[in-house]
Amino acid sequence: MSEAPEVAFTGERLHAGSRLFGVDLARHRAAYAFAIARAEGARVLDLGCGSGYGAASLAEAAGLVVAVDRVRPDAASRRGRAAFVRADIAALPIAPASFDLIVSFQVIEHLEDPAPYLTAIARMLKPTGCVLVTTPNLLESDRVNPFHVREYASDELASLLAPHFRRVEMRGVGMTPRVRAYNDARLARIRRIMRLDVLGLHRRLPRPVIEFAFGQLAKVVRRGVQSEPSGPGPIPDVSEADFPVGPPRADDIDLLAVCGDPIA
């Protein structure tokens, strides 16, 4: 499959079928695979579904999937069984206790104040339901993403969730050795590039310029890693199995919180 059209690319929103971002897609699909195992016959809400490929996969197992984002999902995702809604994900007109499973993957790091968002999630979750939240692990982050307002360590995320759910279990999304080598090379290349920005322009330029530059940087970095003679090269058969979910570790690429017993 070909890469998604350039006009739609931001460096933040991934599209199924992108060869250049195949490792990133597998990383995000790992969280959806974890959710799918808990979604059989369930009423599921996917908050911040992005291009929709994960919601489409969830819908193959769930009884109902409502997927919400402020942007339109990709056409291929819309052909599945998920119902897509364009809305502000913190102000949805949904009845309390409507869903068995709510997933919020790679969203919370975008929010200046996550409290209203988490309050809304707790309100929409059934008392016996489950919420899954993922976000980049601050300890493994490149820390240059302009779309991220705040990134978290595991204990920080747990503390943020605790006022909204009586049960919060922290897990992590790990990496197999070959993917870790790829990620280490990606981080090293980003840091080499950022050392050239001695004036800190990546924080001082107009916001649209910063966001455009980030998207271009994301492509340059991945092309460089995949073509570097001494680097790990491309990983053609990478899958969600390369991102195992387990007990939290400092070197996990993502945090994954399993929450229940909402405080509504």
**What is the number of helical segments per DSSP (H or I, 4+ residues)?**
8
Identify the quaternary structure here. single chain
Secondary-structure class: alpha/beta
In angstroms, what separates the terminal alpha carbons? Answer: 44 Å
Q: Into which percent range does the helicity of residues fall?
A: 25-40%
Spatial sequence of strands, sheet with the most strands: 3-2-1-4-5-8-6-7
Radius of gyration: 18 Å
User: Largest sheet at a glance?
Assistant: 8 strands, mixed
Low-pLDDT ranges = 1-7
Give the SSE order as H and E letters: HEHEHEEHEHEHHHEE
Broad shape: globular
Mean pLDDT reading:
90
Instruction: Work out the number of β strands.
Output: 8
Strand content: 15-25%
Defining traits:
8 strands, 264 residues, globular, 8-stranded mixed β-sheet, alpha/beta
Structure description:
- This protein has 264 residues and is of the alpha/beta class.
- Helix content is 33%, strand content 20%.
- The chain is built from eight helices and eight strands.
- The protein has helices at residues 22-36, 53-59, 75-78, 115-124, 154-161, 177-194, 201-204, 207-227, and strands at 43-47, 64-69, 83-86, 99-105, 125-136, 165-173, 245-246, 254-262.
- Strands 3-2-1-4-5-8-6-7 form an eight-stranded mixed beta sheet.
- α1 packs parallel to α2 (53-59) and α6 (177-194) packs across α8 (207-227).
- The radius of gyration is 18 Å and the shape is globular.
- The termini are far apart.
- Residues 1-7 have low confidence and may be disordered.
